[in-house]
Write a structure and sequence with these properties.
The structure is a single chain. The protein has a domain of 102 residues: Immunoglobulins (Immunoglobulin-like), CATH 2.60.40.10. The longest helix has 42 residues. It is α+β, with helices and mostly antiparallel strands. The termini are far apart. The chain contains 1 helix and 9 strands; from the N terminus they run H-E-E-E-E-E-E-E-E-E. Strands 3, 4, 6, 7 and 8 form a 5-stranded antiparallel beta sheet that branches. 27% of the residues lie in helices and 36% in strands.
């Protein structure tokens, strides 16, 4: 009564389908986990930015704009910042092509004087600063909060 069966049994077929479903779930989870981790790191830096306040308390430049001095005061935030991005603007609306990168932490309630700086434009009248944090890949995450300060020409 032994018949020569030429196919897969129902049990083997069911096990193969279950195995394929588990592999598919694993692949989908790897993709979803990467997206979730990227989103949470962006939220983490946004929260740090809300808690951080770096302001310019003094800004002077010569007329040529090639010798400037900025004094920063960090008023809030407990996390170490990567630095401060500073952009100079003049009356014509021109601004620096590249932001100046003051690349170091400013401790809480401390001032930092950065000089000499080249603003990159003639007769700067205003400086705009943003704190930034270095993300896990070493790239700057620039905070959206911009503090402005008038530049004194000397």
């Amino acid at each position: 009564m032994i018949k020569n069966k030429k196919g897969l049994s129902t049990v083997v077929t069911t096990l193969i389908i279950i195995l394929l479903v588990l592999v598919a779930i694993g692949i989908i989870w790897v993709v979803i986990r990467g997206v979730i981790e990227e989103g949470t790191s962006g939220i983490d830096y946004s929260v740090k930015c809300v808690d951080t306040d770096v302001r310019v308390t003094a800004a002077t430049c010569n007329v040529a704009g090639d010798v400037c001095s900025l004094t920063f005061l960090r008023q809030a935030g407990s996390d170490d910042i990567g630095g401060v991005m500073a952009v100079f603007v003049n009356n014509t609306g021109a601004s620096t092509a590249t932001a100046l990168n003051i690349d170091e932490n400013i401790p809480l309630l401390t001032t930092k004087v950065q000089t000499p700086l080249d603003s990159g434009i003639l007769s700067p009248t205003e400086v705009r600063v943003n704190a930034y944090f270095d993300d896990t890949s070493g790239q700057p995450y620039i905070c959206s909060l911009t503090n402005k300060f008038s530049v004194t020409t000397v």
